[in-house]
Amino acid sequence: RTPNIDRLAKDGVTLTQHIAASPLCTPSRAAFLTGRYPIRSGMAAYTRVGVFLFSASSGGLPSEEITFSKLLKQRGYSTALIGKMWHLGMNCESSNDFCHHPLNHGFDYFYGITVTNLRDCKLGHGSVFLKGVEKTIATSVEIIGITLVSLATVHLIGFLKIPFRALGYSLLITAILLVALFFFFYNYQYLNCFLMRNHQVIQQPLSYENLTQRLTKEAIQFIGRNTNAPFLLFLSYLHVHTALYASKNFIGKSKHGLYGDAVEEMDWSVGQILDVLEKRNLSSKTLVYFTSDQGAHLEEISSSGEVHGGYNGIYKGGKSTNWEGGIRVPGLLLWPGVIEAGTYIDEPTSNMDIFPTVIKLAGAELPSDRIIDGHDLMPLLQEKNIQSKHEFLFHYCNAYLNAVRWHPRNSDSVWKVIFFTPKFNPEDSNGCYDSHVCFCSGRSVTHHDPPLLFDLSKDPEEKVPLSPEMESRFYEVLSVIQQAVDNHTKSLRAVPDQLSWDNLLWKPWLQVCCSSLFQSCYCDYDSKENLPEMHFG
């Protein structure tokens, strides 16, 4: 039950074809903040791993990138980021240089987590990593065993003299590294799951107790401090990314288990924000935008078999894929008196469009020294334009161009060409359940020549790829899209890869620790007391 999110749709505009710029957190959020495809900022990976997983990684959103928060701050706006959102790096060379931190990208105030919310952050919810680590260790032990037997055999029969002392040291070092790796992932919660206020760690590891109430309290207090001044509030819930959680006021209240409880608690918080805007007479002066950074993570299923990853309705696939289920996300905008209530817009739009929209509303100038891929939404929202400015949208799987969407002018058709598709496992499923997410290259994908072609205006479920026999314009559509790809590719410039293995790996000297390693970095300075009076439905 989501009466408050429903209120956003009823009293505002619903974008029914709202597209995330990537089906993964890190690149999608980079695109959202900058209005640019993540490939342009180096926030799209050529490695298998497409997101930051450790707080002590050195990659992140480059300081040269311009965020909408940075431009609004220059225009006199107070800016705050509260919640999960960042996931765009923190430090570069030391544990306190904060080169990628939100406060270095235009936010005045930060209260939240810098990496992401994973099962490993919550005791009893399993691990995203350990299954892979266990396989790695098992494989390594097998390889070491076979190597030892083989070397012993060739030594005994005299083919080769083996310096067993050197070999023993090598095996010892390998064993120590494997044990250290295993130990690291078992202690992931203490090293990577922590809460910050500005530059200070205030809770390590993160406590989920009353967390949504704490986020809501921070948001309400920020609005209160800026009632008479322009402000930008970016409230990013940990809901409903796993590990799932809900407070005692919501546990067991929905009909859909812990996932439903979490959704209903998030909806309650949305209602609290809308209520405080009304109470302070700010509704008519405030644009509210509600979305997600990608589709539901279908492979997230608890050890007891409970669905924790969500549901994408009629749409195929989910998080980590460029099927519609991975990139078609909520797009709800509310601004009483400015945009008409109850409006539905079925035109392709992108989360990159928020950048130019808020920049123009704030009276700032769009950067002229770089390509901005988003478009101002206001003409579409106010029905001054009936068609989206996005004739083409390019869908990347990490750094690989995966698909292209084409909405021809004066046409209802929305063509989508897909160059490669993930190999679902099991084959007859709707996701990559064996690997937890789908990957973008190598043996994990199937390339298509010619590419798959769909008309989303007639087949939004992407059930039946069109063929030249079914669609007379088949090759014409492919030709137009290929020309668009060529033009888009020419617009790209070489930039440092922020998600290279070197930038992704954990670096001990970048590790944040609010006490000491002997105390497992434990601290808790975040008061859970004196929460404002809040009413629960």
TrEMBL record:
Q: Where are the transmembrane segments?
A: 141-160, 166-188
Report which superkingdom the organism of origin falls in.
Eukaryota
Tagged with keyword Magnesium? no
What InterPro entries does its record include?
Answer: Alkaline_phosphatase_core_sf, Sulfatase, Sulfatase_CS, Sulfatase_N
Question: Which cofactor does the UniProt annotation name?
Answer: Ca(2+)
User: Which family is it part of?
Assistant: Belongs to the sulfatase family.
Put simply, this protein is called STS sulfatase
Its taxonomic path starts at: Eukaryota, Metazoa, Chordata, Craniata, Vertebrata
